[in-house]
Amino acid sequence: MSYELSSHVRDKIDDWKTRFPADQQRSAVIRALHLVQHENKGFVTAEQMNAVADYLSLPTIQVYEVATFYSMFQTQPVGRNEVSICTNVACMLRGADDLVDHVEQKLGIKLGESTDDGRIFLKREEECIAACCGAPAMQVNHKYFENLSSEMVDDILDGLD
Amino acid sequence: MAIEQNLVCFNTFGSPESWTMATYEQHDGYKAWRRILAGELSPGEVIEEVKASGLRGRGGAGFPTGLKWSFMPKNYDGQKYLVVNSDESEPGTCHDREILRYNPHSLVEGMAIAAYAMGATVAYNYMRGEFMDEPFPRFEAAVKEAYDAGLLGKNVQGSGIDIDIHGFIGAGAYICGEETALIESLEGKQGRPRFKPPFPANFGLYGKPTTINNTQSIASVPSIMHKGAAWFAALGPEGSGGTAQFSVSGHVEKPGNYELPMGIPFKTLLEDICGGVWKGRRLKAVIPGGSSCKVMPAEVIMECTMDYNSLQQAGSSFGTGAVMVMDETTCMVSVLRRISRFYMAESCGQCTPCREGTGWLYRMLTRIIEGKGEEADLEKLVDVANKIEGHTICALGDAAAWPVQSFLKHFYDEFEYMVRNNGRSIVEAASDAAA
After folding, report:
1. Strands, DSSP E only, in chain A?
2. Which residue from A66, A7, A92 is spatially nearest to B331, judged by alpha carbons?
């Protein structure tokens, strides 16, 4: 099964490519994967990775190895809203573990899992997201939420479509 | 004593729309760059000024910035690059995010000046992927404003100077904060550190001479050039010029990012700036510069000033200025396990001691917390850490080893208590006894 990049994604990749020398298109691969993942609501498929490779004239392995190396790319189906609760030291010292317990109970899933209705993906035990002074903190679809309480987390999660 | 804050990288903070060019220019923004465009400063003069300022790399290693710039080949005809490291991922560190969100023009101007000094005509700012929603667009908007104002591009204002600045966004990998891994990532590859030598100044991005500097280091450059090296150097003590942005987190009343003169006493930072240890508790320990730095017991750090020399003499390091504060109720075994998990998860896997050793450390610490530890494990932890340290391509291996060595050195009794009491923490025992 083949997959074609949307014209929106192609335009964005074309624009991004101008930042690099003409013979260094490979530099655009990370951005391209972000774009297709976003369009696919949270994860990339093999067909999409092949399409990115084709578009940037790269061997497919060069796209696969990037997609599997970086923690922001998901290569398996996941829920459409990505919730990443930081559990690193600064957040841990201010109650992140309790927050994770609370969310796991509320959603009935463990870290790394998605809800059955495909609404929420609770990302693996998250590493430092650079919001240490607003601990405990999390990202929901790349937006920061800081100084969290379990009530605030409830409100945020309940508001996701 | 009142301490002046926000003198350098945060100098627009508190002004309305602090991230815009108009606000930045009200704070003397682009004056230094305009002097360069007017032909008033040679590249060599810029490098000498930065050297004299005492600015040292704020990414953790503390290498003198001006000296680093001088390593770039001068008589090289091909393309040279400047790359800024905004991959801010060292646990505890969150001040580059503030510069990108609230004063991105200081970085844009700093990049232009630094690139000029080194003869680079293209500069990239590598931002961590998690910054895509707010910091990245703010930086992009600042670059656009600078282009629109005729401050960037080819032959800028007829000066003969070419400078193109581009943002870049990563995708989640601590290792990309290591400069050669960052280059690999910028080239569209997995972030795996390269062997050095060759150093990036000779063989960097796309094989061309490249200098990589931290966000805060570069954002400090416009103020140095505008107000002078002597002014900047005098803000801090000998060997630690300027200000630093301290990200204070953990058990304090007022966590936050504070830009303060280097050399401020830790006691002042904790008590006067951050409102002291929260909930009226006692201080137990501090990691002074991100999780890769050695932990310091309360009584040691309370005597220190926050600068390179003082923290090094006391057995730790300045690191990134990310100060993680732990009160008396903190279980040091649990904190160390969390740190070890981080290095296990973030090891790129190319060096065996790091790839395997970080997992061993995490699993041994987990075993101890689950009550299955043995006293021999404590020696084994240090042994594994010692075998990682110095045996890897990059510093992530050392960064994984130092917390283990220092936690066991300073808080051995907590680890010993836990293995002798089936996983019960000494802190829990103390709180039960008090109840």
Report:
1. 81-85, 120-122, 138-140, 143-145
2. A92
A130/B89 touch (CB, cutoff 8 Å), yes or no: yes
B132-159 per-position pLDDT tens digit: 999 999 999 999 999 999 999 999 999 9
CA distances from residue B89 to A69, B95, B111, B276 in whole angstroms, order as listed? 16, 11, 21, 26
- The helix-helix angle for B104-118 and B135-148 (nearest 10°) equals 60
User: CA-to-CA distance for B340 and A88, rounded, in angstroms?
Assistant: 10
Q: pLDDT of B81-136, one tens digit each? A: 999 999 999 999 999 999 999 999 999 999 999 999 999 999 999 999 999 999 99
Whether the pLDDT of residue B1 is over 60: the answer is no
| CB pairs A-B closer than 8 Å | 145
* Token pair belonging to A79: 């829920």
Whole-angstrom distance, CA of residue B22 vs CA of residue A134? 29
CA separation (Å) from A146 to A71, A131, B387, B426? 21, 7, 38, 31
Whether the CA torsion B285, B322, B240, B209 is positive or negative: it is: positive
> Taking CB atoms and an 8 Å limit, are A21 and B166 in contact across chains?
no
Q: Give the number of C-alpha atoms closer than 13 A to the C-alpha of residue B181, restricted to the C-beta side.
A: 27
- Tokens linked to B111: 């990049």
Nearest to B189 among A25, A66, A93 (CB): A66
- Secondary-structure breakdown of chain A: helix, strand, coil percentages, each rounded to the nearest 5: 45, 10, 45
Contact B262, B244 (CB under 8 A): yes
- Chain A's closest residue to B247, CA to CA, is A133
User: Distance between CA B105 and CA A64 in Å, rounded?
Assistant: 36
pLDDT in tens, B215-254: 999 999 999 999 999 999 999 999 999 999 999 999 999 9
Whether the pTM exceeds 0.95: the reply is yes
Cα–Cα nearest to B284, from B272, B300, B264, B266:
B300
Q: Nearest chain A Cα to B182, which residue? A: A27
R_g (Cα) of chain B, nearest Å = 22
Mean pLDDT, rounded, for B178-199: 97
CB contact under 8 A, A93 and B250: yes
Residues from chain B that touch A90, judged by Cβ atoms under 8 A, are: 91-92, 249-250, 324
* C-alpha to C-alpha distance for B321 and B236, rounded to whole angstroms: 14
In this prediction, residue B408 has a pLDDT band, given cuts at 50, 70 and 90, of: very high
